[in-house]
Amino acid sequence: MAMLEIKNVTRRFGDFSAVENVSLSIESGEFFTLLGPSGCGKTTILRMLAGFDLPDAGQILLDGKDMVDTPPEKRPVRTVFQNYALFPHMTVAQNVAFPLKMARIPAAVQRKQLQEALEQVHLTDKAAAYPHELSGGQKQRVALARGLVSRPRLLLLDEPLGALDAKLREEMQVDLINLQRDVGITFVFVTHAQVEALALSHRIAVMRAGKVEQVDEPSRLYSAPCNRFVADFIGHINLLDASVLQAAHGHHVHLDIAGLGEVLAPPHVGLASGGKGYFAIRPEQVRIGVHEEVRELKNHFSATVQQFLYRGDVTVYKVRLDNGMVLEALLPNAAPGRARLFEVGDTVSVGWRHDAGVFLVA
Q1: Which of 92, 229, 316, 320 is a good FRET partner for 335, with 20 to 30 A between their CA atoms?
Q2: Is the model's pLDDT at 85 over the cut of 70?
Q3: Phi, psi for residue 284 in degrees, rounded to 5
């Protein structure tokens, strides 16, 4: 049995269904992420796990026990918020120890657990500091320590890195991964940032309009999305209207893409000739170069560079094919010396391997 089970949970506000018949199982020690656009229901689920809100239907089971009648303060669950929610008049140590004080934990136990929590987030030397004396990253670590100090079964993180700048956000991602591994507590993380979810999570539930679209490991979500929404929401992707010419021929599916003709794609279970859908391929799977460099690929086409964006490690190209279709391709800038860039208007070839991309049923 999973440590946390969300069974057929529904939450409505008037006529609006914020969460509709959602079921999820989360294992002990897992870093689990709820990912989706604003309004998809992920924060509502987090609030129901914390006890700040109650489901209209369904069950939330922690270690097999339904939590619906357990008030927030009695649940072995703590929440870390985006805005830190620190008490400005309290020191770091006082902020972190606050849950222990409210629970009337004996003073000797408080001191021991406080010391351990501060060590876990590397803030022992800041125990006497006040929040206004800390950086954003340090404030976030104080909030994490306060969430962990009472050793909950479940730590909920509601967009905890949203207030940090990009560089600090990356540093905190590494800290979160190490912290979760070291303490072994189950984390349930809410975010709309796809890259962050991919970097941090053991598994991700992608949500849309109150429902779960797909639950999977990050690499599977990225490489094998189950539908167009997941493919388009997770990272950048090229989506081309396609129909099935031949469902199975050896190790390939033969697709027809309007204006491009026949394209080979990886096999897909349950396909039938004549089926309609989309061919989805990531920009990093699309090779761009002069004709000789690309002609060896099963799928290759002539194109014109329409736009490019130099990002240091890679250059992102938008190219227009002869039929007017626009594709995005990535070219690593890994060669020694200054990277050679194709210019707008250059004629190039683009292509991809026969085992790249995925067909998505409409």
Answers
A1: 320
A2: yes
A3: -70, -10
